[in-house]
Structure formats: C-alpha cells, structure tokens
Amino acid sequence: MRTTDTPPALREDSSRPPNPLFRNLTAKLASLPMVLTALVVFVGCTGWTIVHSFTGSKLLPKLKWVGFDQYEKLWNTRRWLVSIENLALYGIFSLCFTLVIGFTLAALLDRKIRFEAAFRTIFLYPFALSFIVTGLVWQWILNPDLGIQSVVRSMGFTSFEFDPLYNASIVIYGLLIAGLWQGTGFVMVIMLAGLRGIDEDVWKAARVDGIPVWKTYVRVIIPMMRPVFITALVVITSGIIKVYDLVVAMTAGGPGIASEVPAKYVYDRMFSSQNLGQGFAASTMMLLAVVVVLIPWAYLEFGGKKHD
After folding, report:
1. Transmembrane region positions (predicted)?
2. DSSP structure string for 77-132
3. Furthest C-alpha separation in the chain
C-alpha cells in the first residue's frame, strides 16, 4: 500500500507555536465586558471631565470654551489654596506616621508574641469601619464637653485644654489622629505579610554574626521589603489625596475653612455652588496628583525590573 508523506510546508506549520493572540481565548472573552466597562466608564468619564474643565459649565455641562480660565480662577481662590496646604500637611504627617507605626506594629507581631491573632484583629478592626463612622467617633472623643478634655478635667486638672476640632490652627492634627487610627492597621497587615515573606535563614545568619535586631531591620530587612513599602506608599498616598468623608464627619471643613480639603472643594463647587466647570478643573488637578504618584510607582515596579 502506497503512503504519501506530509508536505514539508504543512510540517513546518504544525510545528509553529500558536498565535499569542488566541491563547486563553475563553478567559479573554470572559474579561472583555469588564475591560469595555473600564474603558467607557473610567477612561471615558475621565476624558469627559478633563474636556469640560475648559468650559464655562455651571448647572449643566455645556461646551462653552473658556480656555484655562477655570484653572486660573482655581489657583486664585483662597479656599482652594487652603485646601492644598491642609492636604500637604495632612499628607506628610499621615504618610510618615502611618509607615513608621504600621511597620513597628508589624515588627512586634512578627516576633511570634502571644495572642498575636487577637492583636491583629484589634489593630485591623478600625479599617473595617467607614470614614464617616470613624469621624463621628473621634468627633465625640475630641469634643471638649464630652471627650478627653472633659474626662481629664473631671479628674481635677481643671486647666487642661484639648479641643483640636475647635481650634483653627491645630484642627488638621485632630483629623490626623482619626486618620492614623483607621489606616495604620491596614499598613501593619501589608508590612506583616512582607516580613513573613523574609527567609528565616536571613535572621539565623544575622544572629550568628552577632548583628543586633534593630540593625538587621535597618540594613537588611527594610531594603529587602522595598516593593512592600512602595505598595504601601501608593495605597496611603491615594487615600490621602481623596480624603473627604473624615473631614465632613468631623469638622465639615471648619472652623471657617481651616480644615478644607480638595475633595470637599470639588463636591461643594459641583453640587452646592452649581459650578461644574470649576469642580471639573479641581478634580482634574486631583487626577494630576494621582498620576504623579502612579508614574514613579509603575516605573519602580516594572521599569526597574527590566533594567535589573
């Protein structure tokens, strides 16, 4: 019986790897609705907001071009400038204290202490609460007639004063206390996960060499946890830029405009003042701040690996 060999061209086609475009085709088709939603809702709405920030929209959006007038008015408005100053002050202190306290708590829990699960739950519990609930709780705690000041004065210290929410010069620090109480536990969990990923042989080698624990953390452990710190930094910074609920629940931007923040400025301009163009311009500036944070993170996470 005569057999025919497969032509060489067909043999070469069968040996070629499949087109990467058709790999995991089912998974790609399943994710297509989410990708389209992200493109239409997030990217589309972001572009729509940026376009209308160059218009004179008031109650309703309309394409009445005014160029950079909205941005010029924005940066000449004292309320916006105060909100930027407050955000910078709140952000710097929140970023530093959250990272330091979160890492310290994680390092203590990583020492295999007793009741570790209970402590983890206690520290992480505030993160499960909304900012509105956190704000109301700390509004009561910092209230001079109900909270810390009242309790201390009832103990005989009648000259004691602690009312940050009613003092324009220190109100931002009252907000900072509440923000740290809620956010530190989440950063602690991120850091603890990073510490648990460190090989035990590193600690054994440090003990054999007689290196103190604190020096091991500073010179060995923390450099090894660079990706964890970058992730925590991005998460904290994103939360700082969009802080709104906490301010509304605790001070509503007062006293006066002493605790104003950009997110509240955007909300008030768009819905209270019915000035959509100004609100769009302010929200675009907030978007720019997020992009400034995300680009270095993306470079360090992806571009740095390619260089390495």
Report:
1. 29-51, 87-109, 121-141, 170-195, 216-241, 280-300
2. -HHHHHHHHHHHHHHHHHHHHHHHHHHHHHHHHTTT-TTHHHHHHHHHGGGGS-HH
3. 112
CA–CA distance, 178 with 171 (Å, rounded to integer): 11
Report pLDDT digits (tens) over 122-141. 898 888 888 889 999 999 99
> What are the tens digits of pLDDT across the range 232-249?
988 898 889 889 999 999
Q: What is the pLDDT of residues 95-123, one digit of tens each?
A: 999 999 999 999 998 887 888 888 888 89
Please state, in angstroms and rounded to a whole number, the distance separating the CA atoms of residues 237 and 186.
Answer: 13
* Fold assignment, 73-307: MetI-like fold (1.10.3720)
Q: Between 49 and 298, whose confidence is greater?
A: 49
Quick one: which of 63, 126, 82, 58 has its CA closest to 264? 82
Rounded to an integer, what distance in angstroms lies between the CA atom of residue 111 and that of residue 164?
A: 36
Tracing tokens 């996960």 back to the chain, one arrives at 193
Nearest Cα neighbor of 289 from 87, 97, 95 is 87
Measured CA to CA, the distance from residue 10 to residue 2 in angstroms comes to 20
Where does residue 272 rank: exposed (0-12), middle (13-18), buried (19+ CB within 10 A)?
exposed
Residue spans of the domains in the chain: they are 73-307
Residue 178 in this model has a pLDDT that exceeds 90: yes
Cis peptide before 255 (omega within 30 of 0): yes
